[in-house]
Amino acid sequence: MTGLAKAYITSDIKTQALQPFDLAIGQGEFVSVIGPSGSGKTTFLNIAGLLENHSEGLYELDGQDVSKMSDKQKSAYRNEKIGFVFQSFNLIPELNLYDNIDMPLRYRKFNTKERDERIMKALEQVGLAGRKNHYPTQLSGGQQQRVAIARAIAGSPRVIFADEPTGNLDSKMAQGIMTLLQDINASGTTIIMVTHDNEQAQLAQRIVQIKDGVLSEESSILTQAIA
Amino acid sequence: MKDLAPIIKALFKEKLVPFLLILQISVTFMVMVNAANMISEREKLMSRPTGVDEENAFYVLTNLQGPSEKFVANLSHDLASLRAIEGVQVVSPLNGVPLGLWGNYVSVYRNLDDEYPIDNAGYYGSDEHIVENLGLNLIAGENLALSDTTVSMTGNHNISSSILITKAFAELVSPDDWRQAVGQTIYTTNTPQRIKGIVEAMQGAWPRWYGVNGSIIYPVIEVDNTIRYFVRAEPGQLENVMEEVNKVLLNTPGRVIEKMQTMEEVRLRAYKDDNASSKLLISVCVGLLFATSLGIYGQARFSVNRRKRQIGTRRALGASKGQVMRFFMLENAVVSLTGLVIGFIAALSLSEQFAQHFGLTPVPLPYLLSGMAALFVLGQLSVSYPALQASRVEPAIATRSA
Ligand SMILES: Nc1ncnc2c1ncn2[C@@H]1O[C@H](COP(=O)(O)OP(=O)(O)OP(=O)(O)O)[C@@H](O)[C@H]1O
Ligand SMILES: [Mg+2]
User: Fold this and answer.
1) Segment holding B12, helix H or strand E
2) Please, where are the H alpha helices in B104-148?
3) Which of A16, A159, B359, B363 is most open to solvent, judged by the fewest CB atoms within 10 Å of its CB?
4) CA of B322 to the centre of ligand 2 (A)
5) Cβ neighbours of B6 in A, within 8 Å
6) For the segment B232-269, what is each residue's pLDDT rounded down to a tens digit?
7) What would the pLDDT profile of A110-147 be if each residue is shown by its tens digit?
8) What are phi and psi of A109, to 5 degrees?
9) For residue range B53-71, what is the model confidence (pLDDT) as tens digits?
10) Which residues of A touch B394 (CB under 8 A)?
């Protein structure tokens, strides 16, 4: 990302949500994004995750200029290479856990058997294989977020974007989710996570701080220890 | 189609809303196809030919001034002066007009002392030119001749003559082969009548009467105080001729013109109620279709709004705009098809009830199938705009609204 910036323009009011910044993130990294409320963290994440367009600068993803990708190409890219974990889980209430995880897989060229294997493997990884026929409302928040993580990893993405994944959870459940994310990262998946929690942020290799739309990077305790 | 299985599962889970829509679609379908069938049955009924060439034709109901000794002379005078009018093609004296709602019928017997008649028949009386003048179609036997014609003040059915009958009545006289009716003798009011020829059709006075197609034509000019003249004008001259006929008739002192109607008006009046109820049925159907279409649209709008976050999530997780649109179209297709299948069964059983109790023809299969197709297309059209809106939901909504 070079000179990337984002401005929202709504009825004559221009909100400069992100000031121009440069940032490069490599495969397999675990990056935390911290900052006060309204500082632009979600905006950053949405742009990085191809959910929103940037208004200035260059964003290259896998060497590809994102601004030249069509909506369809971006959808396909999100579907195959990106996993999302949301603060409020965003599971589909009408579908059981199995079908929730199946949902993004159905847009891919997997056959039924391969989908089934992926779904079951993901459910096992988050420890909920026994509840595949349950519906989201029958689960606790922590369990729902585990399902959402299973949904994110079932398609073997290269990167997972998580916007305050533990924001709606108590600290014990949050602990479990963090461990899960670390495990996923350990197997090579890049993770970019927005958080309010400084302690959680310290678990990452890199910490990006955003204040009033201005990005800065501080090194985490982890990197300091390695160095 | 990738979403089909989860859509069906989700609909089962949701129950109420899909159920109501399914109910609405099936009821609409059931009413619509049965109404369409009724309308088309009625159209068929209304399009039966009277047998008379109705184009450019009208009749006038007037009086022959008495005393009765002068009836015949007055009739001849009228005919001569009417035929002299420019633009008049033919003039026939006639005791009633097809579908005129006022007319005559008589019981027809095979033998003189039979207890039961063959059936009742509407009857007409005119001169020997009736076939040509009214544009009837003689399909068996011979036409009437001058020697057949009589003039009477007492009615037609009690004067022994050579008569014409319609094919529909010939089929009653000679059920095995209607042509064999030619030459047979039948009895009306204890008077023998020899069947000289058969015309294809000449309907009686009442369109809803069971015997409307079985008629008898006597070569008897009935002179009475009242008389009807059937007049055919040259093409394009109808209005002028009617005006002129009115003028010429009124030249005779003491003349009263009771009625003057084109055959087109006669037909319209005869089928007024049928036309009105067809229109009512059509408006009911249009109303139902509108309500169903609105129901589908409204439900889809509501569901898109309610599921904005879910749609955003689907988009975020990789569904393209087209896939989101197809999702809603497919969901509606499942609901519509379920409603149509239930409606199909309901329509069949309603149609059977109608057939049993009101003698209607059951709804034919092509009606059912094309009705299903039409309603399905209407449903998909109704859902297309909400589906398009759904496809425009931003994927970023997944991270935004809490
Ligand atoms: N669609 C939008 N239109 C206009 N302004 C917006 C829009 N989305 C976000 N903003 C503004 O952009 C700025 C950054 O918002 P953003 O959601 O990225 O902050 P955040 O750091 O994620 O906050 P929080 O910690 O509360 O989630 C805010 O001032 C916000 O009001
Ligand atoms: Mg945020």
Assistant:
1) helix B4-14
2) 130-134
3) B359
4) 28
5) 95, 99, 102-103, 106
6) 999 999 999 999 999 999 998 889 999 999 999 999 99
7) 999 999 999 999 999 999 989 999 999 999 988 999 99
8) -90, 25
9) 999 999 999 998 778 888 8
10) 51-52
